[in-house]
Batch of 4 targets.
Target 1
Amino acid sequence: MTTIRSSASEMAAALASGETTSVELTEAHYAQIEKVDAQVHAFLYLDKEGALAQAADVDAKRKSGAELSPLAGIPLALKDVLTQKGIPTTCGSKMLEGWRPPYDSTVVSKLKAAGIVILGKTNMDEFAMGSSTENSAYGVTHNPWDLTRIPGGSGGGSSAALAAFEAPLAIGTDTGGSIRQPAAVTGTVGVKPTYGGVSRYGLIAFSSSLDQAGPCARTVLDAALLHEVIAGHDERDSTSINAPVPHVVKAAKKLDVKGMKIGVVKELQGEGFQSGVLSKFHEGLEELVAAGAELVEVSCPTFDYALAAYYLIAPSECSSNLARFDSMRYGIRVGDDGNRSAEEVMKLTRHEGFGPEVKRRIILGTYALSSGYYDAYYGSAQKVRTLLMRDFNAAFAQADVLVSPTAPTTAFKIGANDNDPLAMYLNDIATIPVNMAGIGGMSLPCGLAEEDGLPVGFQIMSPAMRDDLMYQVGGTLEAALLSKWGGPLLDKAPVLAGN
């Protein structure tokens, strides 16, 4: 029997067999949203009328015998950083409150073409800057495993929607870990494709050389199915790779790692990593060995500098990208009473429109790019980036994929790091190197930490445009763990209060 707890691939099979309809699935997920989202706050906007119209259209096409995509009729939650024509798009910021884009992002266009039903927009850290979804101007999102804890960030709304069974699929974006870290702390699957593998057209930019949209799901196969929908070359994105999309669905179904070499990154499992996280990570390694893989320890010394380099490059690009929000063209405008200059209105608008974390990063980036400091800060950080890429290349010469814990800890309490930006930034210590090098990265659940019973993420990293390799390893590990657990990890999640 198909329920909202089924995987997207199971729902797709039920649709194909006539067991259910897209309208029924969509209505069931809206019923769940109505039931739990007051506590979780995963969504910022729901497009019920539009979604049901999409669902009815798919059902009509299916009834007529039309050829449909594998995910046609499956509901999805969309991170509020991607434009959808006529639908409010805020990036979690007051700056864009009320803005309705006049165009679809390429990702949204591909979702619509595939017949995927977009339920609504999910909450996020403002302009994707954060690791906890506490920086949204529209309120905090709560982790369905424990409502007093964060769901990760910046894409905590998407991951929480999956974990609370409000949607079987979601789209996130990953600049320094914003898909993978939320997946880790909510017991879901999140993938950052190779940079350029998914179009950034219509993705409101934070850091243009790092941002990448990707699939979020509850299983590796579901993520692969969604990956193939949204990936591919786009001439509207100058950084889009003009090459065939890796066969990630085929790889996810392979369930075979015999003879593969798995590189365990020495620098990503030491000081600062919770003991329960390391314990579950090593249990995951044991499952891969039992499946026939060979473990190889690899050292990537410059990973120790990745965080510092990232927090010069990302804020610098943020400072440049967010300069467009000047009160003159779109977004809110504050203080325009006819008596103030454009400069005064701009200053008032940016003061009111941006939250503290965004302001912090704009200031950092503007300083790093300023005259006399550019070479010392931004230029030096780019040199470190080159060294990071060399470390990855050397490591991939020894192993097919690299692995590490996704996040150093399980989900922390809401408010725990409010006054400690560095502690917040350290949540992305294991995910940032992937973005800096532009390669693929995946997080999948590998168990519950002994200390607190909360989910732990297992990260798999693959060479550029070999995203299929991380799906092959991820699918194999997931199958082994499901067999060991006797079912999905989310089946062990505490029931939401009142649900």
Target 2
Amino acid sequence: MKRLAIITFTIPLLLTLSCRNNAQNKEANEKLASIKLPPGFHISYFAQDVENARSITMGAKGTLFVGTRELDKVYALTDSDHDGIADKKYIIASGMNTPNGVAFHNGSLYIAEISKIWRLDDIEDHLANPPKPVLVYDGYPADEHHGWKYIAFGPDGKLYIPVGAPCNICDDNEHDPRYASITRINPDGTGFEVFAKGIRNTVGFTWQPGTNDLWFTDNGRDLLGDDLPPDELNHAPHKDMNFGYPYCHAGYIKDPKYGDRYSCDEFTPPVARLGPHVAALGMKFYTGNMFPAEYKNQVFIAEHGSWNRSTAIGYRITLVRLAGDTAKSYEVFAEGWLKDGSAWGRPVDILQLNDGSLLVSDDKNNAIYRITYTGE
């Protein structure tokens, strides 16, 4: 287990994000030009050179916090002139064990390591000199397999924290109910409970406007071939629902090893079956006014992309259109990170800004994109 270390900053460690030469800018612009979006939409860089950018969350004063999975760092980005491009980058934490998850609540940034939850208080006023971290919770499994965590605060004020299955396919959750679940705790670390189970590995969830119901993506198991099982978009309107892992996948596929133990009818099926092995991660309901009305309250999903398929798939932003809690369509919204079977970028997480634009993180191209709509 890596030891947490918070760096005390000096001026040289406050980095600008615009020091790129002409060749680098040309290559970056050519990459952006290859992204296909619906008419009237545009994509630009909110920030570049944000290595391994993963989960993103916004502070109350407009600071964008960025977690990482392959590094040990957490970033803070600011756009001081409000032009839609970040101009300063801070490393506010380092020495962490896979700090993928970040969530902001009441002035504090919560950071999820594999087995611990930390809190940095009053962080937006101390980006260049971060406060000493407070340990909130130290009771999650230490397994690295599916151990990285996406975290978010729900409408109930509780912090929701998933625990992935420590394997491709196994029944460890039968012996330890923390595995293959979404859990929640109070902001002070008390009140631990399992909210939903039968979830192989969710790395993205949010709450539906109007209902405050939890929705989440889930990554299907491997080694059943190129086209099985599909990834999932799920809906959990209340506590104690079971979504089938490891016995049943996507609501209809019995697992070859464990499927004879239960019927698929005993579990909650997904609202939408997504592409097989697309690695559906971050998701958000669109609630802004910048995009056309047809996008209001629909679900945007970041698909990180397949690693285990003979023909690569994913590496895109998709859209699930809903009528209430029923999926009406599943379609590509933005694509182009995958070219001739090779990916130059991998979308991870999605965040809506106050102006209605969307931010998208990319841990391969080390960037945060901004998607806007002008109608032109």
Target 3
Amino acid sequence: MLEPAAGVPPVVTAAAALDAAVAALDGGTGPVAVDTERASGYRYWQRAYLVQLRREGAGTMLIDPIGLDDLSSLADVLNPLEWVLHAASQDLPCLAELGLAPTAIFDTELAARLAGLERVGLAALVEDLLGYHLQKGHGAADWSRRPLPAEWLTYAALDVELLLPLRAAIAAELDAQGKSSWAAAEFETVRSAGTPIPRTDPWRRTSGMHRVHKPRELAAVRELWHARDQLARQRDIAPGRVLPDAAIIDAALADPPDEAALLSRPVFSGRSQRRHVKTWLAAIHAARALPAGELPSLRAQGEGPPPLNRWPERDPAATVRLTAARATLTKIAEYHRLPLQNLLAPDLVRQLCWEPPDPLDAAAVERELVAGGARRWQCELAAHPLAVALTPAAG
């Protein structure tokens, strides 16, 4: 089993130890590898329960942000540096909550996609490019545990120990393919993305919604989802651990009239659910009492094109345009060894095909792409070919 070259450092939990770590980090050179461990699936809030750092000349640092009140000294040194992360969009939000925000990043997962590599997981990249076998298995653990087990800390230290040489290997591949400027633009897009916009009607993403066919049942799902969310927030527990999605769907379809009927349903007979049975039943009753005019619609209302399966009946010409656009983009992506979704965002392509600009030419297509968030390199590759592909199909 691979072990950290210098062993696993002690976890920084006190101000004096943080000062020493900051001084070491400040004395290092080059970019800094950054990773976090959260407790997704266990906790409601997606906060960082461990921050891992490594810089040349400074070594590896494991910092427990839960035990530290002030990380401003760390931010002063860390924020101006280039950060090397893997799947940066997963780590940046919880780091921003700690006052840690980079001025530049290098995302090894995104870089690997742009380089056309087939396997882009961290363990796979380390094995393919560096020749090391990285043991995985603790990323989905409950990192809010204290104390953290020794084997978890080994895992955490290795995650950043290999990021810097991995960055060098992928950067060389990008440079050889002439894609370094593309990658820089993509990294900046991720870095500057900010806090994700909350989803509209997030309760509609409850697993098993395909079984719900009536507005009244849908209302019950909504009320149960919100009741669960409130409890999860208050207790800082992942919603699925408060009440599984399957139980929400089951109760909404069964529409139990009283506590006894609800407690007879799967899951609800457990000790935890018996404790909150009045909450769940109140949600079901609230849905049952809604006037017909206040029931949610079966199909989510939102901007943008309709679901793809409705395109042929709603606008056959748009279906033809989408087929032509996909064929064109697939050829471009294959030629440049890019995943199709990294060439252009699928939602942006669908929007363009559903409502093409008028007049339809390369300049107009480029304006639509830019308005939809496409980067310059993407427009250079795709705008003119898309205009050509869509023009014959526009009529």
Target 4
Amino acid sequence: MQKLQILADSAKYDVSCSSSGASRAAGGRMGSTHTSGICHSWGADGRCISLLKVLLTNKCVYNCEYCVNRRTNDVPRESFEPDELARLTVEFYRRNYIEGLFLSSAVEVSPDYTAERILQCLELLRYKYGFMGYIHAKVIPGVSRELLHRIGLVADRLSVNVEMPSRESLAAFAPQKKVEQIFAPMKQITNTLIETKSLKGPGTMFKGQRLNDASNYLGPAGLADGTAEDSVTSALSLAKGARRKGSFAAAGQTTQMIIGAGNESDASILATSENLYRTFKMKRVYYSAYIPVVDSPILPDKSTAPPLRREHRIYQADWLLRFYGFTVSELFKSGGENLDPDLDPKVTWALRNLDEFPVEVNTASYEQLMRIPGIGHLSAKRIMRQRRFAAVRFDDLKKMGVVIKRAKYFVLCCGRYYGDRCFAPETIKNSLLQMESGLQLSMFDNDWKRIEEGERQEKLAAAGVI
């Protein structure tokens, strides 16, 4: 329990995990995953999760400036043995505490040494204990190709963390890490995913390797009444039935960047993300607002608040890159290297390109509708569908899921504009800021008016007027 307390606390700064993305039935064995996500417990940041999020060890040979586990930092140090952590995960699952594992680690001795211990833990979980639940494994930069491939065969998702958004920041804050060591495993994961997904049906591509791995842990003591021959047969059955030819890291790969430790602008951070999505087919790029945990002359002071609002805006801009067809050059082409902390990035882009608005919803293309603040892909599809039968009127937009309070400033319905009379950036921005800050209490208008009237009556009575 002491190890768990120390190593779970050390893992809380790594946000590059997600509990969804893979689907697998247990098939009579223990554990299962669902693409809809698994939610049973709560993380420190309020998100509902059910992953055991822990480090294998926090004994690190690296001395990265931003890391709480850096070599020169005076913190309690612990390490799990592979079988110790595997048994802990299984027991937590049996008690319904968790339904999956996110396993990361500091670099103990060397990347390969650490990766071997991670691999041993995951193979014990899969083969000895028959755990088929969700596993997200952190890949150590600099790990050998063979170890990375074997980890990918037993994990659902892999992550290689970029950590710093630029080569200059990485050299300044983590000089022992090299960009090439980070991108090499990313490239290997991407190539393997492309190769395995192009192959269909059950196969024997890795059967021999998987059988050898499983037989190491499924000896006579591994099963209740098993023999060595039974163990090998069970291992082969597990390797063939539980994992298919395309199941190398079936949920893809992710990465993480720290926001606020260096001097990078929002534009440069998102440009790095755009390149990662395009080059390595990332499922997600996670952003972590830097929390000052160590004293360093090149890092923000410990009293500095984490840039949580900036992190939130970058996540919103990242969403525009992934699902709305925006590019980084579009988001920042009209000036400025940073996002407006007070407004949604989509609204900021629209205000900077007001010459493209207002857009007539009855004639706009799907791509134009997707650029309108307050309209998402579902509402855009509903508008396109409705237009086949009748003109879309302003009153119809809310029924279609459009956020009217935003969209009304940027659309025309049957040629009519429903926003403020003054179609100017500052006027629209002030109106939207009032809405964002909660000054418009539309849900409680009647109650608010009654309260104000009651206060007015009390003041008049106190003054002797009534």
